[in-house]
Amino acid sequence: MKLRKTMMLVFLAAMVMSAGSAFGADVTTAIDVNSAYVWRGITFNDGMVVQPSVDVVAGNFGLNVWGNLDADDYGDTLDSGEFSEIDLTLTYAVAAGPVGLTLGYIEYLFPTTDVGGGLGTREIFLDASLEPADGVSTGITGYYDIDEVEDYYLNVYMGYGMAMDSGLSIDFGASAGYAGDDVSADGEAGFHEYTLTVGAGYEINEMVSVSATLGYTDAIDDDVLPEQDTDVFGGAGIAFAF
User: Fold this and answer.
1) Which helix (H) or strand (E) holds 205?
2) Residue ranges per structural domain of the chain
3) What pLDDT digit, counting tens, does each position of 212-226 carry?
4) 3-class SS at 7?
């Protein structure tokens, strides 16, 4: 069972890489090891996870395959050594004057494991971003679940990054989410969570880079997002560009 799920992700990633190579696209593969899996402030696993991904960019189009492998179990909901989630994301990005617009579609897959699984669902999203100053980015992303949930989530964010001649880069980020009734963790619409991150990256050469991230997240309104098992999280990763 575990081998089959692993092979499924490898097969999907191989298809994405092959398609990218065939169309002369830019392909990046990465693998991150994180202390926990936190999504929109919600703890999906408070133990170590391994998250491989493949990105393909061709012109204005982008395709991403991402997976979450649970190295640790999480109560009775997750089993260690299995992929609990695989996401497929298709994007189209354009510029409208100083504003960058990205339209996207996400397919969420939750493979059945020994301790359960979940129904997959689908989201569409629109991101509008702006760079008001050198190294500064800000924007808002609106998501709408068009399948199982049929509700919305909004995320506003701001970041600052700086690159050094040595190949080292440092970035800071802050974001906050607002969730509809059916998207929020406690079934009540309102301000959901905020997240603060600091990260560092280093380009070993033109093809290989490494990174590390440390983050903190918490509820804005406890009636919308109840107390979670994870507030502080972090990890490291390596990426290969082709």
Assistant:
1) none
2) 2-241
3) 999 999 999 999 999
4) helix
